[in-house]
């Protein structure tokens, strides 16, 4: 089996990377940057996002594992003292795989150009100056005209990230859905939005259509780009999924509790 290790590149992560690489090679696994079947991220959730995007073109042939060298992460949920056990498990395939839903974002320009992205956490649509104004359509029907700082559309596993800071709900990743949360919408007698976060099931496509030609700042997880001449931004649950190699149970709600409430379970 072919593997690749992506590290945050700090001293601790690099050391763990070297150790794991040695162990796995001793088990006759092959280090392969181009076509790894297993990708191990060593660092934090941010490192995991990078690893995901590096291999996003081969999701059906790649399983991911995250080892954290800082605080407990949502994707980086193995500890450095587990790596020996982890290496043995990886070496004796087949391993168990858990799949999580992703967000598909399609940006269409008036010129006919089109960009497609997959997000593991979320996509945010903002503008560098002033407010964004767009019509929000759900399943082809007009829903509202949004005016405000922007909109965040997150995946279930991304619901504990930026979405949570915006007051969105935490969604279990077994639920195939995307969540729309508002960023400072303007609400008065002229402009009105729903105000509450919306949770859309699979096949309920959300379309954002700019009302005036503006330049938008569109982020996909940890990277962002400026777009001009935007015709529409389409969001829905992607047909692709991310695959995690699972070697032990660590239920989602336990991760939520340990990260946000209390670590000793009391
Ligand atoms: P960052 O600024 O280091 O990330 C901010 C924090 O979010 C870090 O503590 C990061 O964990 C954590 N995080 C990332 N994904 C998460 C998830 N699914 N659930 C819970 N926490 C998560 O930037 P980054 O490391 O490149 O990560 C980018 C992500 O950070 C974005 O996708 C966005 O969701 C999130 N973010 C959140 C806020 C906020 O809550 N106000 C602000 C900016 C960015 P690590 O330290 O382990 O990397
Ligand atoms: Mn980070």
Automatic annotation (TrEMBL):
<keyword id="KW-0067">ATP-binding</keyword>
<dbReference type="Pfam" id="PF20143">
    <property type="entry name" value="NAD_kinase_C"/>
</dbReference>
<comment type="similarity">
    <text>Belongs to the NAD kinase family.</text>
</comment>
<dbReference type="Pfam" id="PF01513">
    <property type="entry name" value="NAD_kinase"/>
</dbReference>
<keyword id="KW-0808">Transferase</keyword>
<keyword id="KW-0547">Nucleotide-binding</keyword>
<dbReference type="InterPro" id="IPR002504">
    <property type="entry name" value="NADK"/>
</dbReference>
<feature type="active site" description="Proton acceptor">
    <location>
        <position position="45"/>
    </location>
</feature>
<dbReference type="GO" id="GO:0003951">
    <property type="term" value="F:NAD+ kinase activity"/>
</dbReference>
<keyword id="KW-0520">NAD</keyword>
<feature type="binding site">
    <location>
        <position position="184"/>
    </location>
    <ligand>
        <name>NAD(+)</name>
    </ligand>
</feature>
<dbReference type="InterPro" id="IPR017438">
    <property type="entry name" value="ATP-NAD_kinase_N"/>
</dbReference>
<feature type="binding site">
    <location>
        <position position="149"/>
    </location>
    <ligand>
        <name>NAD(+)</name>
    </ligand>
</feature>
<keyword id="KW-0521">NADP</keyword>
<dbReference type="InterPro" id="IPR016064">
    <property type="entry name" value="NAD/diacylglycerol_kinase_sf"/>
</dbReference>
<protein>
    <recommendedName>
        <fullName>NAD kinase</fullName>
        <ecNumber>2.7.1.23</ecNumber>
    </recommendedName>
</protein>
<keyword id="KW-0418">Kinase</keyword>
<comment type="function">
    <text>Involved in the regulation of the intracellular balance of NAD and NADP, and is a key enzyme in the biosynthesis of NADP. Catalyzes specifically the phosphorylation on 2'-hydroxyl of the adenosine moiety of NAD to yield NADP.</text>
</comment>
<keyword id="KW-0963">Cytoplasm</keyword>
<feature type="binding site">
    <location>
        <position position="147"/>
    </location>
    <ligand>
        <name>NAD(+)</name>
    </ligand>
</feature>
<feature type="binding site">
    <location>
        <begin position="121"/>
        <end position="122"/>
    </location>
    <ligand>
        <name>NAD(+)</name>
    </ligand>
</feature>
<dbReference type="InterPro" id="IPR017437">
    <property type="entry name" value="ATP-NAD_kinase_PpnK-typ_C"/>
</dbReference>
<feature type="binding site">
    <location>
        <begin position="45"/>
        <end position="46"/>
    </location>
    <ligand>
        <name>NAD(+)</name>
    </ligand>
</feature>
């Amino acid at each position: 089996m072919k593997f690749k290790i992506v590290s945050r590149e700090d001293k601790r992560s690099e050391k763990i990377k070297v150790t794991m690489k040695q162990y796995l090679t001793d088990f006759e696994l092959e280090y392969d940057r181009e076509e790894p079947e297993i990708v191990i991220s060593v660092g934090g959730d941010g490192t995991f996002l990078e690893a995901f995007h590096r291999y996003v073109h081969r999701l059906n042939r790649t399983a991911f594992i995250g080892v954290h060298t800082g605080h407990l992460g949502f994707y980086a949920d193995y500890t450095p003292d587990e790596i020996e056990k982890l290496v043995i498990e990886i070496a004796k395939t087949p391993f168990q795989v858990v799949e999580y839903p992703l967000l598909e974002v399609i940006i269409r320009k008036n010129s006919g150009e089109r960009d497609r992205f997959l997000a593991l956490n979320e996509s945010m649509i903002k503008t560098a100056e002033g407010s964004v104004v767009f019509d929000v359509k759900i399943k082809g029907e007009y829903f509202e005209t949004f005016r405000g700082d922007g909109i965040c559309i997150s995946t279930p596993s991304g619901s504990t990230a930026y979405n949570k800071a915006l007051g969105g709900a935490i969604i279990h990743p077994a639920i195939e859905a995307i969540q729309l949360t508002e960023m400072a919408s303007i609400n008065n007698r002229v402009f009105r939005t729903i105000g509450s976060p919306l949770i859309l099931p699979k096949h309920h496509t959300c379309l954002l259509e700019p009302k005036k030609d503006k330049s938008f700042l569109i982020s996909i997880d940890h990277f962002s780009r400026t777009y001009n001449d935007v015709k529409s931004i389409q969001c829905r649950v992607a047909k692709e999924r991310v695959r995690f190699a699972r070697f032990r149970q660590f239920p989602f709600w336990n991760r939520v509790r340990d990260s946000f409430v209390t670590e000793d379970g009391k």
